[in-house]
Amino acid sequence: MADEETPGWARQLLAEVGDLKTSFEQRLDALNNSVKDIKKETRAIANRISNAEKRISDLEDGNACTSKSLKSLTEEVKNLQTKCINLEAQSKRNNLVILGLEEGQESGNPDKMIIDLLRHILELSDNDPVPEVERHHRSLLPRSTPPDPPRAYLVRMLRWSDRQKILGVVAKRKRLVWEGKPIRIFPDLPVEIKKKRAEYNDIRKRLRGTDIRYGLLYPARFIVTIEGVKHIYNNAAQATVDLQKRLPKIFD
Questions:
Q1: Among candidate residues 178, 166, 106, the one with its CA nearest the CA of residue 136
Q2: Which residues of 45-80 are buried (b: 16+ CB within 10 A; e: fewer)?
Q3: Same domain for 149 and 201?
Q4: Which H or E element spans position 240?
Q5: What is the per-residue pLDDT across 177-226, written as a single tens digit (0 to 9) for each?
Q6: Is 203 among the domain residues?
Q7: Which of 38, 45, 157, 178 has the maximum number of C-beta atoms within 10 A of its C-beta?
Q8: Is residue 94 within a helix (H) or strand (E), and if so which, with residue range?
Q9: Given this model, what pLDDT does residue 2 score?
Q10: Would you say 156 and 131 are in contact if contact means Cβ atoms under 8 Å apart?
């Protein structure tokens, strides 16, 4: 009787509500499962992030130690390089480098050639004693052929004072000629010092021909005397900036 008393539309509505409930329950179950999966993946991602943060922290700590060690090693290498350059400079303390000496001039009797050359440079007579030479030879490069310049000739004086005496005479002479060819004589220095000294070439070129006294101090400092006052510079950039202010007409 109850079914007969329930209208058809009510029964249909109840059936549709039941179907809708079933559909919602199925969707909620699927949503719950998705949420569980998301939570599981989130926990996994959180664990991976935590592990990554720990590894990054360890790497940063290790990098800090490595940077400290690298800085210490770099400083040590720099000090060792400086010591090596100084040792090389000391080993060449008595050496002279002669440029422009024609290939083959030392053939036959090289000892006589170098003695005659020193007599010529120092303007000594045949009876004057010649500074003692410990050894002398060409640079250990393949023999040059024209038009390439001749190889440098290396001379090691027995005494440092004789080496300085020769350099002093050379500094006063504007031009040296031997066997009809111009020659130049320099102290023998390590390559690193030569490069640093070469940085002053532009400044020296500007000062050449003026009445301003200038020169180089060991290892690679530049000294200029302006109005009786000496100015010493540790590098070419510093010298250029200061001399532009002091000598604007020359360094314009």
A1: 106
A2: eeeeeeeeeeeeeeeeeeeeeeeeeeeeeeeeeeee
A3: no
A4: helix 236-246
A5: 999 999 999 999 999 999 999 999 999 999 998 999 999 998 999 999 99
A6: yes
A7: 157
A8: none
A9: 47
A10: no
Residues 181 and 111 in one domain: yes
> What span, in angstroms and rounded, lies between the C-alpha atoms of 42 and 71?
42
Q: 12 lies in a domain?
A: yes
Provide the 8-state DSSP code for 141.
Answer: S
CA 24, CA 151: separation in Å to the nearest integer? Answer: 99
Please confirm whether the linkage preceding 182 is cis (ω < 30° from 0).
Answer: no
Is 60 exceeded by the pLDDT of residue 3? no
Among 171, 178, 174, residue whose Cα is nearest residue 114: 178
Non-local (6+) Cβ contacts of 38 within 8 A are none
Q: What is the pTM of this model?
A: 0.68
DSSP state of 38: H
Count up the domains in the chain and report the number.
Answer: 3
Q: Under 8 Å CB-to-CB from 62, ≥6 apart: which residues?
A: none
Q: Which residues contact 39 (CB under 8 A, 6 or more apart)?
A: none
**CATH classification of the domain holding 178:** 3.30.70.1820
| Among 197, 204, 185, CA closest to 98 | 185
pLDDT digits (tens, 9 = 90+) for 111-154: 999 999 999 999 999 899 999 999 999 998 898 888 899 999 99
